[in-house]
Amino acid sequence: MTTVIDPFKDGRPLWLGLDEEGFRRKVFQVIGKDLRDTEFLNAGLTIFEPGEASSMHNHPESEEIDFIVQGEGEVVDTDGNRTPFAEHTFMYIKKGVWHQHVNTGREPLWLIWIYGPHGELPTT
């Protein structure tokens, strides 16, 4: 079966990072164990306003692929290394690697994320 999903209409909207300034972002989860009954994958769209970032997080048992729909930023590791990324690029994050996405641009950053097998979404 093929399913077409509109993240804004059919996704699960979540605000993350509301308790700490600079970590706010809007997440639209479209695929997950309890959402579309998927066997292996979690997926969604996260929108970061300029200057916003995810928390430093990892997916202990999952590999992650991200695609940058629009905007630019950096992915930061636990040693403080910052790797820039641009619109229309992919990034691959190995299982268990700690990382943080940061919007360093002047426009909203739209990041599509897919990881598997199933794991928890960051809560901050």
Describe the protein.
- By secondary structure, the protein is mainly beta.
- It has one domain: Sandwich (Jelly Rolls), CATH 2.60.120.10.
- It is built from no helices and 9 strands.
- The strands form 2 sheets. The chain has a 6-stranded antiparallel β-sheet with strand order 1-2-3-9-4-7, with no helix packed on it. The chain has a 3-stranded antiparallel β-sheet with strand order 6-5-8, with no helix packed on it.
- Strand 5 (73-76) and strand 6 form a beta hairpin.
- The radius of gyration is 14 Å and the shape is globular.
- The model has no long low-confidence stretch (mean pLDDT 91).
Question: What's the count of strands?
Answer: 9
What is the oligomeric state here?
single chain
CATH topology type? Jelly Rolls
The geometry reads as globular
Query: What's the pLDDT, averaged over the residues?
Result: 91
Give Rg in angstroms: 14 Å
Instruction: Note the run of SSEs as H and E.
Output: EEEEEEEEE
Number of helices: 0
- In helices, the fraction of residues equals under 10%
From the N-terminal CA to the C-terminal CA, the straight-line distance is 34 Å
Major sheet details: 6 strands, antiparallel
Structural category is mainly beta
Q: Assign the CATH superfamily.
A: Jelly Rolls
